[in-house]
Amino acid sequence: MNADQLTDERAGRLNGRFTDRLADVVAGVSDPEIDVGLRDLGVLRSVSLTDGRIRVHLTPTRISCPAVGEIARRVRSALAEAAPGYGIEIVWERGAWQPAAVTVAGRDALSRGGYRVAGTASSCPYCGSEDVEQAGRFGGAVCKVPYDCRGCGSTFDVIGTAGCTAMLPTPEPVRGGSR
Question: Which site from 32, 86, 121, 136 is most exposed, i.e. has the minimal number of CB atoms within 10 Å?
Fold first, then answer.
C-alpha cells in the first residue's frame, strides 16, 4: 500500500467516524410532540456527508405531520453546533413511516411517557392491564389516538400511522344514480 492509498483509507475512516458522530447528534434530537429521540422513534433514516454538506434523511410519522418544520429546525440547530461551517440539507422521505420502525429503546421510552405504539399489545403503559378501550378517534396530535384503562383509570395515547388511519371513517358506498 502506498502513501496515497493509506491517506485515502485513513480519510475514509475519519469521514465514517465523523458521519457516525453526526448521526448520533441527530439521533439525540427529540420529537417536539413526543419526547423521544428521532432514531428511537424511527424517524431518522440516514445521515451522509458529501462535499462539505450534511444530508439527513427523515420520515415523518404522518404525511401531514405539523411538526416537520420544528423537527428540521432542531436538527439544523444541533448539527450547526456540532459541525459549524457545514451545509445542512434535510430530506423528508415520502415513504410511509411504520410503527415497527420504533426501536426497543423507543418503545420503552414511549411506555415510560404514557404511550403505546400502534400494532403492539393493547395494554396500559402504567399498570399493564389489557382492559383498555378507545376513548376517541383523535388525540392531542394527528398521530395519537386516546385510550382509557379500566384497570387503573389512566388515559394514554397510542401513536402510529397505522393506528390513526385505522380510525378514519370508511367512505359510504354511493348507491343508485347521481345525487
Answer: 121
Q: How many CB atoms lie within 10 A of CB 176?
A: 5
131 and 70 within one domain = no
The pLDDT of residue 163 is above 80: no
Number of domains forming the structure of the chain? 2
Residues 19 and 38 reside in one and the same domain: yes
- Domain assignment of residue 176, yes or no: no
Tens digit of pLDDT for each residue in 97-109? 888 899 999 999 9
In a domain, 126, yes or no: yes
Q: Can you tell me which residue has the cell 405531520?
A: 65
What HEC string does 56-89 produce?
EEECCCCCCCCCHHHHHHHHHHHHHHHCCCCEEE
pTM of the model: 0.76
The per-residue pLDDT for range 15-33, each reduced to its tens digit, is 678 999 999 999 999 999 8
The whole domain housing 149 covers 103-166
